[in-house]
């Protein structure tokens, strides 16, 4: 037990989880923006936009996240010398956020589309009847109701994103939790199982409140019909 | 209330399943009795790396590398013929567990002897003393040691001892941490980074790979000391015999041959101040 406690003096475990939370925070914002745009594409009346939305979702949803993140380093940084900032380490952090956002935008898009399906057709017809064209109708009538119906699936995407933020390790973000876990296992092979359980527990502690919150919110905010 | 009880039951059931799955490993244990009764038609399970060219590498069913050659020699000395050896993959993070659960009998997998590891496993050897070194492009003469890396981009593997050493001692280096050395090498070929770092013999193995031949060189200025030992369970009886086998291998010249054969084409010479090593006493 004493042995175990010395781990926390040597390694800053909360800081590693904080890095995952930061990755999740920024990726969630960008994924929500991009995902909403894609959902608009997919429900729009313009065939070419529908195609773009569907193509994006199918490509990114079916590409393993590890490959997207590894491409950020091996392709964007290694081959194309893409730099999102002058700070060497921050660059990888941002590339990882980019990869996480692109990937999860596909899932956000589908979650919102499932929310759109909860909005009765009559709502869209009524919006048309009072003279709203597609964008105002989507902005004022459809999307607000869709978001309220999509809270549970969006919460699931967020939970997946929190855990997937560990894949940033493949993108040279070495300050996050799974990288620190690797370091700790390398140096403290005598405590492999306790180290593993510590990180598993850490994620459970972060994820459970998110699950509870979204379940509560999805009930509270559901549109009564 | 009822809901909670179901949840508790479900958790208990899941825990029971997980625990019984863990316990399943030792059914085949206790192969090496060691001593006089050894190797009567039994097999020995040896943990090696499967993904490290020049040390332990899976070539589609057969295995090559320096670790593998030493393992074969030692197993042979212990009385096991080559067809009695069963090679098992031993990734870095699993090595201690494989030994303490009895899933392997010994491990030859670039396994550095450290005090923390001695808490849970025993070591025979060392059979090689490696040192952290740098791999650079063959035409790059600007880097002759870690001091020259200030402001340059260096690649290592996430969570490795080598990566930690750079972070602690050379904070001015831009460190890229990748899941494996293969990624480091491809980054270096693309020009994104200037050097890769880990133990010299691992770098030599990478540089000696056919696809990389002639592209990279090992700098040859090791700045750490990693004693590669043979990982054993703590209750082993084979440690002395393994040490004798290692000593014999070195005296016979088979050790030297194995190193030369596995780093051919990499322009690599091992650190001859520390090699060949004398095995430590068994605790």
Task: Write a structural description.
- The complex is a heterodimer of chains A (225) and B (283).
- Helix content of chain A is 80%, strand content 0%.
- With 225 residues, chain A is an all-alpha fold.
- In chain A, helix 2 packs antiparallel against helix 3, helix 2 (13-43) packs across helix 5 and helix 5 (88-116) packs across helix 7.
- Chain A is globular and about 70 Å long.
- Chain B has a five-stranded mixed β-sheet, with helices on both faces.
- In chain B, strand 2 and strand 3 (56-58) form a beta hairpin.
- The chains are: A mainly alpha (225), B alpha/beta (283).
- Chain A binds chain B through residues 70, 73-74, 77-79, 81, 88-89, 92, 169-170, 172, 174, 179-190, 192-193, and chain B through 92-93, 95-97, 114, 116-117, 119-121, 153, 158-161, 163-164, 174-179, 183, 186-187, 190-193.
Can you summarize this structure?
With 225 residues, chain A is mainly alpha-helical.
């Amino acid at each position: 037990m004493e042995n175990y406690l010395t781990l926390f003096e040597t390694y800053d475990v909360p800081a590693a989880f904080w890095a995952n939370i930061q990755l999740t925070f920024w990726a969630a914002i960008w994924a929500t923006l991009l995902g909403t745009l894609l959902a608009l594409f997919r429900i729009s009346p313009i065939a070419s936009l529908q195609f773009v939305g569907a193509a994006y979702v199918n490509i990114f949803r079916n590409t393993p996240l590890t490959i997207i993140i590894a491409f950020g380093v091996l392709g964007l940084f290694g081959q194309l010398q893409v730099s999102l900032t002058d700070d060497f380490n921050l660059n990888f952090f941002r590339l990882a956020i980019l990869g996480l956002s692109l990937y999860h935008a596909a899932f956000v898009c589908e979650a919102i589309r499932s929310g759109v399906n909860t909005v009765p057709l009559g709502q869209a017809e009524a919006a048309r009847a009072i003279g709203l064209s597609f964008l105002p109708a989507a902005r004022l009538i459809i999307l607000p109701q869709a978001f309220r119906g999509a809270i549970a699936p969006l919460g699931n995407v967020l939970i997946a994103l929190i855990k997937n933020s560990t894949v940033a390790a493949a993108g040279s973000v070495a300050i996050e939790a799974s990288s620190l876990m690797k370091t700790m296992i390398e140096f403290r092979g005598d405590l492999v199982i306790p180290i593993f359980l510590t990180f598993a527990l850490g994620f459970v502690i972060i994820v459970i409140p998110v699950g509870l919150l979204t379940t509560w919110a999805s009930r509270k905010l559901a549109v009564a019909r | 209330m009822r809901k909670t009880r179901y949840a508790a039951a479900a958790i208990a059931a899941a825990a029971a399943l997980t625990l019984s799955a863990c316990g399943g490993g030792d059914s085949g244990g206790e192969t090496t009795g060691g001593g006089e009764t050894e190797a009567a038609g039994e097999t020995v399970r040896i943990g090696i790396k499967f993904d490290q060219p020049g040390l332990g590498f899976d070539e589609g069913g057969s295995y090559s590398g320096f670790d593998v050659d030493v393992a074969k020699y030692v197993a042979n000395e212990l009385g096991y013929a080559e067809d009695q050896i069963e090679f098992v993959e031993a990734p870095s993070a699993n090595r201690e567990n494989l030994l303490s659960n009895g899933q392997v009998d010994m491990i030859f997998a670039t396994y550095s002897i450290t005090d923390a590891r001695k808490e849970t496993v025993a070591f025979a050897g060392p059979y090689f003393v490696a040192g952290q070194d740098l791999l650079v492009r063959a035409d790059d003469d600007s880097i002759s040691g870690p001091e020259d890396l200030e402001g340059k981009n260096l690649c290592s593997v996430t969570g490795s001892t080598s990566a930690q050493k750079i972070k602690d001692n050379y904070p001015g280096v831009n460190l890229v941490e990748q899941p494996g050395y293969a990624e480091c090498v491809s980054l270096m070929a693309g020009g994104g980074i200037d050097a890769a770092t880990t133990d010299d013999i691992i770098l030599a193995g990478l540089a000696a790979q056919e696809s990389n031949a002639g592209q990279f060189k090992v700098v040859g200025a090791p700045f750490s000391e990693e004693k590669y030992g043979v990982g054993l369970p703590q209750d082993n009886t084979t440690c002395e015999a393994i040490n004798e086998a290692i000593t014999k291998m070195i005296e016979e010249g088979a050790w030297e041959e194995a190193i030369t054969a596995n780093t051919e084409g990499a322009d690599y010479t091992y650190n001859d101040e520390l090699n060949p090593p004398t095995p430590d006493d068994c605790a």
